[in-house]
Predict the structure.
Amino acid sequence: MGPRPPDKRARSCVVHPTLVERAKLFLYRYFERIFVLLLVGAMVVIHTLVEQKFAFLSFYYLPVILAGFYGGRRFAVVSGVFVASLVFFYQAVQGLDMLPGLYAGALLGLVPWAGFLILTGYVVGRLAEQREARLADVKNAYMATLELLAFHIESSEKHLQGHSNRVAQLAEAIALELKLPEEERENLRVGALLHEVGTRDQRLLRLLSRSESDAAVPVARAMHGAAAIIAEYAHYYEIVGEDWDIDALSIPVTVKVLAVADSFETLQMSTPVREAFPKWRALEEIEKGAGKTFAQDVVRALRVVAGRPEVSTPLAGLKVV
């Protein structure tokens, strides 16, 4: 009989993104493109089907407000100018409940509307940027607190001092090399900072998971995402191994990155039973597990981050002497 597949019950505590969460992530990632398509579609529908076109100009305040809220001042102003340009073009060619052309009567009605539309986008965008700046300050303070907490927890064991901070920095660098989304990088950084504590004490996972009700706040999202990463990482080495191709296992890429970063950093630490590995020796040990214990794409990213060029494999059929 062959080896038994991994026991999926061991991973029951893992929180995977729901369909709604994945849809939100897709919407946030491609918001500008979706917004422009909806805007153009609305223009076509209104100017094709609605007879009282001038009365529906106020409709465009809503998408411009959304542009300011999600994209900031620049995107909102550009969107407002784009909408106003289309409306002016339509008035010049076909007319909006009035004779076609840009004569004084038409401009008297359209110019104030366009001005207030652009101004609304600017104001909303500025308020949104100020809100983002305040949230960034909160996030920076929260990350600094986590770093201090991790350092304090590890200070009781000399060989662990600074370990979690170094793992977090390395994991973030690998995630950047893999071009992971910013939200996943944030979750990974928090999870890496707390992975030593979280894998030992389930109370931390329960505490982090409470932030799910505040998912609209970036800090809360990062805490909840970190809880999922730590929970999955706690069972990582029960799942991977020589008998299974790691790419065939449904392990989130953030967990794979954490595993590589943690192992690479741990190998370079001295312990009571062995000396610290030099950097390149540690990298060689990680490379030995590529494809089985560690994901190959993550190992390649580690090689780039570590500053070592990838070694090409000799072609099959050639004898190396």
